[in-house]
Amino acid sequence: MNKSSRKAILAAMPFLVVTIALEALVRAGWIKAFLVPPPSGIFITIVRDWRELFEALAMTSEGAVLGFVLSTLAGIAIAVFLSSSRAIQEAFYPYAVFFQTVPIIAIAPLLVIWFGYGMRTVVASAFIVSIFPVIANTLSGILSTDPALCDLFRLYGASRSVTLWKLRFPAALPQILTGLRVAGGLAVIGAIVGEFIGGQGLGSVIDIARTQQRTDKVFAAVLLASVLGLALFGAINVVSRVVLRRWHVSEQA
Amino acid sequence: MASRIIETVSLARRSFLKIIPVAGMLAACGTAKKIRLALNWKPDPEFGGFYAADYAKHGLDVELLPGGAGTPTVQMIGAGSAEFGIVSADEILLARDQGNDVVALFAAFQNNPQGIMVHASRKLESIGDVLKSGTLAIQSGLPYARLLRKQFGFDHVKVVPSPGGDLTAFLNDENFAQQCFVTAEPLLARRRGVDVKVFPVSDIGYNPYTTVLATSGDLLRRNPDMARNMVTAVREGWRSYLDNPAPTNQRMHALNPTMDAASFAEIAEAQKPLVEANVLGAMTKERWNTLAAQLRDLGDIKQAAPAEQYFRSL
Prior knowledge:
The complex is a heterodimer.
Chain A: H1 3-27, H2 39-48, H3 50-83, H4 86-101, H5 104-115, H6 119-143, H7 147-155, H8 160-198, H9 201-211, H10 215-244
Chain B: H1 2-22, E1 35-38, H2 48-52, E2 62-65, H3 73-79, E3 84-87, H4 89-97, E4 102-109, E5 114-119, H5 127-130, E6 135-137, H6 143-152, E7 158-160, H7 168-172, E8 176-181, H8 185-191, E9 196-200, E10 210-216, H9 217-222, H10 224-243, H11 246-255, H12 261-270, H13 272-275, H14 285-298
């Protein structure tokens, strides 16, 4: 057995155990089906409503990925800006925290008025929810560059921008990628919350199914949302492997 | 397994409590578990009668649990995390169709307070007109939304999710229509200087009982007296709230200060015609049958059960 198939089996084990246990508990009547639907029921719903669910998944994916890409670009840019001087950092960093604490549901009606119903509200919601970890991790990565290496660059007369792009930024990559892993999952949540108010995708499916007391469909949509989260996570891991493989311990071994 | 063990324990405790008063140890009654009544929104005039009720007079120690958007009261009743809950008639039909044994006891709102609110300046004449242009904010999952779609089609109106009670989008856009409680949002919109027109959903023949006190079939079998006392207390509560809402409004306002005192008074007045009846809270088989047939035709429930399964007159 090679290493990657062993890893896949290990990762699938908890899922299988929980699924089988849940199915057994519901069938035995210890958990009521209208509270937690049996996994088989969720699976049947996915198969039966696949068209509706996958169209919704496609829309949610678009919103989440766009929001994620925006927060990656803006988050890194903001962190680089913040790292440029201690004064700038002290002046603006507290405001970045705003993004982490904004209760998205509370400003939802405003998002709709600013961006209209539909995709733009969804992207905005995914962006707001996911940008903070990118800023925080990038900034902390840039600021924790090995001082000895900074001295070396100074000794050779490297300019500030050369130091940033050749030293600080590459050195921060592992932390930036950690920030992106967190942001990926948050972007999915942000997109779905945006869809509750913006009206499309999995958020809309969940909202409607909940009103209709269709817990099986709610869980089906949640399952697809987590597949989307996993896909984003996997994509970031691939990027991480490619950029870090040659020099960072976290991707070696 | 765990739930069965708890079940046995609480049954044992219940029979134990029956013996104690006989033994003259009345003090021990203080340890009795409170009866939980789960609300699906924050304390507001919609629940006035439930807050006005004197439960203690009927030997009940009731705790009202305020809810929020999407509080699943019907599932809470089924799961036993609340003995009683406030639901709407359509929720009962959906729940029973899913195997959740929930039964209606008392319909506070005899007529559906749900409606669609539009700017009066649009000069619309009927619900059908609302669906001819502009935007409609509505909970698409609700049966009446699909009934509207079936009757009029959604081809000419942009349907968006309901913003709850929030009026920002409505006030901002003249061609924005939104689902509302006929007793609440229109009042707030008028106060903000917008002249509104309201079309009750019952106009299209959809008139489920709402703000319905419900319990589980299990509790009805095990403790019919508790259910009966509860209904009596609630009926008296609503009578007193209809006659004199002020003291209860004051108490609810203290619990929910976000809603101002004037709104409490105005809404309590506006909802009176929807609540008032010969026998408060009473329900008829015909109404339940009509609703069940409507939901069956919409495909929301697999089959319409006999009306007696949906409600109980106590």
